[in-house]
Amino acid sequence: MASERRKDTALLAARAGRYREYAPPPALRRHFSRFWSHALHDGPPAQVAIVPDGYCDLLWIGGRLAVAGPDRTAAFPALRPGTTVIGARFAPGAAAPWLKTPLSALVGCSVPLADIGWKDTAEFEARLGNCPDPTDAMALFARLLEEAARDADEPARDAAVIFAAADGGRPASGLLGRLGMSERQLRRRCHHHFGYGAKTLERIRRFQRFLDLCRRAGTMPLARLALEAGFADQAHMTREVGDLSSLTPAVIFDQLGMPKRPD
């Protein structure tokens, strides 16, 4: 019963406040795909669903730096109203070398950066803690990561190719010859760089295509949405979307089609 209520009442994170994305500075573009900020609205707390996207993020939240590992299914964190989160989304293949940690160890977890043994954590937290304005904190966050990038390992190029295939609706297994690896090596690389296997990554990126279509589909019927996103049919979409988000396609379509609340 609780699970069914969650499907009707949970709010996608993008609807739970003001979410903005920014291009990373040029020096960081090989390591990060996006910088972002999320200011939650004041008022009664909502049940917020953070849905899987195949990425790993660095966060500045509550005075601490943390790593949000990749998710297999939606997370429902307890977030205080009025909280502002600043994040940097790793580029595909960049997180594991930067963190020196396989992402399979971080699936479904939000871990303090200090617990991973990142040597600059205490210094960076102290500097960010002296910067209460969110806009200034975002600028400082970027500068600190530029400093850290000087010692960071290069992203894995084969991981970026695997991600691009999944993102475009092509099976990663079709890349085996091009990448010069066996199925076992592909599975090992995917678990290292994404936290799970290629098929799970493909499911998650197809789900993200569905979300993108919901944002711009207007009055497109759900059956057409399913085919455009790459599902076999509407029933397949309903199962997959429910498994990954704990929401129904109709609820997601309604939420993403709502006019945004004024800032």
Automatic annotation (TrEMBL):
Family annotation (PROSITE patterns): HTH_ARAC_FAMILY_2 (PS01124)
PANTHER family, sorted: BLL1074 PROTEIN, HTH-TYPE TRANSCRIPTIONAL ACTIVATOR RHAS-RELATED
Name of the featured protein: AraC family transcriptional regulator
UniProtKB keywords: DNA-binding, Transcription, Transcription regulation
Organism of this sequence: Rhizobium leguminosarum bv. trifolii
Domain HTH araC/xylS-type stretches: 175-255
GO molecular function ontology, one term from the record: sequence-specific DNA binding
